[in-house]
Amino acid sequence: MLKSQPSSSTSSSASADNSSGSTGATASASAIALRPSHSRSAAKKILASYDSKEVRKGVETLKKRIEKHFGDADDAALARGLVAKVFRECENRYADGWERMRAVLDRVYAAEAGSGGAGGILDIEWRKDEVAGLFRR
């Protein structure tokens, strides 16, 4: 029976790694930007492929799918409520995604821009409030 339980030394060492990882976070973040696959130019290309127009098209497609799958209930009021709830959750997910992208850009690429890196601060081409407005229409 003891073999099926996780060892306590494994879980305590994992938590120690997490707590000590905060001191090495800056070094690893700057190391990420030095990788060719994660370079500043690669990040710019990815961000450029998700401009406001592309995100708007994606949100409109998502809204149509949500309305198709959740809007066909027998009770119209229930369907409207469910669709509204799913829209709010999608809006929150987009906002969370924006926040995560902003945090990564600030942590990984801002130090590079401050040290004379080319191109300045990377920016996300769509705004959270734009997406929120799209889901509320």
Question: Could you explain how this protein is built, in words?
Answer:
This protein has one domain (25-136). The protein has helices spanning 8-20, 25-34, 40-49, 52-70, 76-114, 128-136. The radius of gyration is 21 Å and the shape is elongated. It is built from 6 helices and no strands. The chain has 137 residues and is an all-alpha fold. Helix 2 (25-34) crosses helix 5.
For the secondary structure, the number of strands is 0
Q: In this structure, how is the largest beta sheet organized?
A: none
Mean pLDDT across the residues is 79
Number of helices: 6
Q: Give the N-terminus to C-terminus distance in angstroms.
A: 57 Å
Order of helices and strands: HHHHHH
Q: What percentage of the residues does DSSP assign to strands (E)?
A: under 5%
Q: Give the count of structural domains.
A: 1
Helix/strand-derived category reads mainly alpha
- What gross morphology would you assign? elongated
Report Rg: 21 Å
Oligomeric form = single chain
Low-confidence stretches: 1-23
Percent helix range: over 70%
Biased composition (Low complexity): 7-31
Protein name: Exocyst complex component Sec3 C-terminal domain-containing protein
Domain Exocyst complex component Sec3 C-terminal: 26-110
GO cellular component, one term: plasma membrane
